[in-house]
Amino acid sequence: MPPEDVPLHEHLGSEFMYVMEGKLGVIMENTEIALDAGDSAYFDPSFKHGYRRIGPEPCRAIVVTVP
What is the CATH number of the domain that holds 57? Predict the structure, then answer.
């Protein structure tokens, strides 16, 4: 799925993610950041954001949200 087609959402709290396998695209507003296996991110989810797998390989990540 191209980045411009990823549905974006927003919510209160904090969000942490850890990529276990593959490559994950994190889209925030109009910017995409690519995370590889072993990478993590922590951000304010009140900004519109979404996720997508980058490439043909499976992608697995742990996402934790805290209100």
Answer: 2.60.120.10
Mean pLDDT of 3-22: 95
pLDDT of 47: 94
Q: Which domain holds residue 34?
A: 3-66
Backbone torsion region of residue 22, taken as left when φ is above 0, otherwise alpha when ψ lies between -120 and 50, otherwise beta: left
**pLDDT exceeds cutoff 90 at 67:** no
Backbone torsions φ then ψ of 31, nearest 5 degrees? -125, 140
**Cα 37 from Cα 14, distance rounded (Å):** 21
Domain count, the chain: 1
Q: What is the pTM of this model?
A: 0.89
